[in-house]
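Course assignment 3, question 2. Fill in each field.
Student: A.L.
Task: Predict the tertiary structure for the chain below.
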Amino acid sequence: MQRIYNNLSPNLGVMNSHVIEINQVAIEYFVEGVGKNTLICFHGHGRPVEDFLFLTKTDQKLILIVLPHHGKSKFPIDRIERQPLSITEFNSIFAKILEKEAVQHFHFIGFSQGGRFVLSILPFYRERVQSVHVISPDGMDPMSFYNRTSRMRLARLLFEKWEGAPKSFIRLAKFGFNLGLVRPKVFAFIELFAGSKVQFQRASRTWRGFRNIQPDFNAIIDSLNSNKIYFKVIMGKYDQVIRTQQAIDFLEKLGYPQALIEIECGHDFFKKSNLLRLKDAIKI
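Answer field:
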């Protein structure tokens, strides 16, 4: 069953909030501007879609996708463990967004967790995508501790339990930090997203519920090679959350080592002082 909603969002000025729902999975999105270029942007975990408003131009249309467990986008809680979100299911809604907005060709931009969605959905649109810019994207290393443990049932059960007591998780992370197992910036990141039950709950539910959203490296290679898509991975030189070495290894596997752009910042790309550097790195 498909449902479409349309409401004005007080947080995003005059932009309208649209929601498309299919089988109890709902995706909210916003549209800003009109023009010959359409940029479809996916925000990072815990980040607002306003992050991408710096890309507003008179000849560009922005479609800002809200990931599940953010805003009005939702995913059934009772499905997280038994039937997590798949990229095929997400694409069924994304395709409806393109249809509703009459979009034929477009540019993909994704940050962090949103970058994982962009990389995963890219092969579906290899003939319609004009460029891809992923900013410190998650998903470049499917065997990283973060991604690998999300596929372990015991780890997921622990996180579900910690949703009610996130301070217990912070204590565990601090223990790892004191032993030198957790990097300082990563520990600061953990403290940020485990600072309240609401924040930790969202972090846990996205980590557990998005575990099957994994980029298909071979499909990405085929998409880039067969359609000559302009493709860049933008990394922060001082980013300790997702490090440049992950991007180097990822791009070596794809056969696109020249696609790396490194700018002078950490994981805080949307900090006002870093926006000009980020804007210069995005070529539409």
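Instructor remarks: Confidence is low (pLDDT under 50) at residues 1-11. The CA atoms of residues 237 and 264 lie 5 Å apart.
Grade: pending
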